Amino acid sequence: MTRSFDVHRVRADFPILNLHVNGHPLTYLDNAATSQKPRTVLQALNNYYEQQNGNIHRGVHYLSQIATDAYDRARERVAHFLGVADPREIIFVRGATEGLNLVAHGLGEILLKPGDEILLTRMEHHANIVPWQIAAQRRGAKIVVADVTPEGTLDLEDFYRKLNPHTRVVGLVHASNALGTINPVEEIIRHAREVGAVVVLDGCQSAPHFPVNIPKLGCDFFVFSGHKVCGPTGIGVLWGKSDWLDRLPPYQTGGDMIAKVSFERGTTFREAPEKFEAGTPDIAGAIGLGAALDYLETLGADNLVTAEKALLDHVTPQLREVPGLKIIGDTKHKTSIVSFTLDGVHPHDIGTILDNDGIAVRAGHHCAQPLMDYYKIPGTARASFAFYNTTQEADALVASVRKISKMFA
Fold first, then answer.
1. Hey, what's the torsion of the CAs at 373, 376, 379, 383, to 10 degrees?
2. Which end of the chain has a smaller Cβ tally under 10 Å, C or N?
């Protein structure tokens, strides 16, 4: 059941938000890197280790059975979150990075050949660049890069010009972690379908901020990280179409992903999802992720979208007025991320001074060096808001940035 949204009541669910840093109340604005965890997630983790701790799928005893049931329910919970009918299309991985590596490795083995092209964008996170570079080198394929506009949107004209029958894979970020830009992925996926390309969608910055419906999107693979949706670290999700999961080879081998092992007759493997979950998985992490998604549902997706948009609309015009400040990715259709530079001030200095005021932001290239190269900057300071942030915290950021601007004027 969705409850009415009261940010102060919501903040009470997050123990860490009571911290003081350098004598100031913590203003946590690094949510694009990782989100904070509500008490229900912490309790779910604690409950697992105190009441349910047993290895899954391998025992007939009580603890193994209840741990297995809880793990399987978490998979079903993720499927519901993504609008997916078959939970067996949900693969638990260590994070979105492992999911992207799994797909790039597998498609490299069964799909790519010399002369094929992999179409990426300049706004991709390194995790959606480097695995494809390795796959291309291994298979003799070619990386093609679609550019961005100075405003921070994907240059669709350039993208569609480079999309062609040689394009075997499109790797695309749903929403940019460095800019906040939300890409028109449904339109892009329709065009990719016309040339027969496989579409791999990085949803790390979309899943935490607005509803994702996989069937509506029409992609072939989708990844997101648990720790960015108020879940634990070390757990992530790869969704893949069942026909692709059937074709992909195992990424890792070991216990629980095998059907039979024999020195004489070789080894056969189980079907997805077990085929891709070798060894003991992060059982507690999956359960914690399920609890996080339950928590978000109680708040209501529409409430979260509205709250974060209000914060973005509140802070952006104020930052634009700061002398010497330039917003990188100042677009209309974006998540609650504001990346900016200040004339004459290195982003790391901005981050350090803000930290002195108890304000946590990210400073650097945000694992998006090709994008920073495009803008000819070493990096940005990035403030990223979540639904539990307040307008008072946004105002504290603006006041501190104004102070920095005056210091270096």
1. -110
2. N
- CATH code of the domain made up of 7-30+300-407: 3.90.1150.10
Candidates 262, 251, 289; CA nearest to 74 is 289
pLDDT in tens, 208-254: 999 999 999 999 999 999 999 999 999 999 999 999 999 999 999 99
CA-closest candidate to residue 366, choices 204, 125, 205, 172: 125
Give the Å distances, CA to CA, from 368 to 177, 178, 179, 207, 373: 8, 7, 10, 19, 9
What spatial distance separates the first Cα and last Cα of the chain, rounded to whole Å?
Answer: 51
Going by C-beta distance under 8 Å and a sequence separation of 6 or more, which residues neighbour residue 321? Answer: none
Tell me the C-alpha distance between 318 and 393, whole Å.
Answer: 13
Q: Is the dihedral of CA 136, 140, 145, 146 positive or negative?
A: negative
Q: Domain ranges in the chain?
A: 7-30+300-407, 43-297
Task: Count CB atoms within 10 A of the CB of residue 164.
Answer: 12
pTM: 0.97
Which residue in 204, 219, 230, 367 is the catalytic one?
A: 367
| Residue 367: active-site member | yes
Q: What's the farthest any 2 CA atoms get from each other in the chain?
A: 75
Q: What fold does the segment set 43-297 form as a domain?
A: Aspartate Aminotransferase; domain 2 (3.40.640)
Radius of gyration of the chain (CA): 22
